[in-house]
Amino acid sequence: MLDLGDSCSPQSWICRATQGRAGLMILDGMGYDAAVIGGRERVPIPAASMQRLRDRLVMPLVEWHTLRELSKGGVRLAIVTGDAALPPDLHGIRVDRSKTGLSQGGDGELVVGDVPGGVLGRAIVAWPAWAVELADVLDLPDETPPDPTIAAIMELVEHEARLFAQQQGGIP
Description:
Layout: E1 2-3, H1 13-17, H2 21-29, E2 34-37, H3 47-56, E3 61-63, E4 67-72, E5 75-81, E6 92-100, E7 102-104, E8 109-114, E9 119-126, E10 131-139, H4 148-167
Parallel strand pairs: 1-2, 2-3, 5-6, 6-8
Antiparallel strand pairs: 4-5, 7-8, 9-10
Helix pairs in contact: 2-4
């Protein structure tokens, strides 16, 4: 699972209180394989906050205009964002937020564009040929019950954010 960014809005008190870390901590707890930071939203995370994130997260962070190689279950691929180039010897996923949905790009790329809130993009790729067999968007109905583990992680992060905000003098 890959988060494309915008996981923490600067208008949200919890994102301001945690300097953008809250959403990424929740995604990590949900088992995401990677998360993109940056892009068109251009929300800077201070260097000290980035270091705290890297020290605490299991999932790798993919900063905008970079390439990040990942390996899972014996499959090696790259996630490229912005102007970063995909190496010729590696299959990969290109995050292109100027597009919408999912599509097959050139040179063995799966292109992942923006998807609206409340949906999940899904791609099924044949390995080792790296052929996209299915690329679509799945709606998540409003009545979808929350996963209890994810809800607990969210409550924990919100509680910690409130404590941090109180220590900083800004009680939400």
